Amino acid sequence: MAKGRFKHKPTGERSFSSPEDIAAGTSAGRPKTFAKHDEKDVYSRRGEPEEESEDFMKPKHKGIEGLIEIENPNLVKTKNVKAKDIDIGKPTDMSRREREDLDKQKSHERHMKLQEQGKTEQARKDLERLTIIRQQRAEATKKREEEKAVLAAKEERKANKALK
């Protein structure tokens, strides 16, 4: 092989013009853009007319695929749903995450209701703490009132002593 600047490209299968092609004007030397297309007559490579069939629609199979029909269970076929076929009233199935979020939200609401009613341990402890705090505040206000009364009594005594 000669080492050159350009690489050789494979040209594929050679095609030779038959005398009929030359006479019809569809020789291989003519560019494809100038080829005359006749929709009624379709010729094979041998120059024989072919019958149009649906075989060209079927994909070609490699190996023995064409002989044995195998359906892939893992193959996911896309389902095209038209807009007119969609049922709006039908409830849709929720995903796992959506279901978990909904369950979590419902359980939280249930817990909050029980806590408001005072039926949970935490609510009971909070209520006990609140009663203790209320008692302490009540005692503190009583002490302040007593101290005010004592201070008022002392001031009265001073005022009475100053007047005498």
Automatic annotation (TrEMBL):
Region (Disordered): 1-60, 82-128
Source superkingdom: Eukaryota
Stretches assigned to the Casein kinase substrate phosphoprotein PP28 domain: 72-149
Bias type Basic and acidic residues, positions: 35-48
Cellular component terms (Gene Ontology): cytosol
InterPro entries: Casein_kinase_sb_PP28, HAP28
PANTHER family: 28 KDA HEAT- AND ACID-STABLE PHOSPHOPROTEIN PDGF-ASSOCIATED PROTEIN
Name this protein carries in UniProt: Casein kinase substrate phosphoprotein PP28 domain-containing protein
UniProt organism field: Zea mays (Maize)
Originating gene: LOC103635836
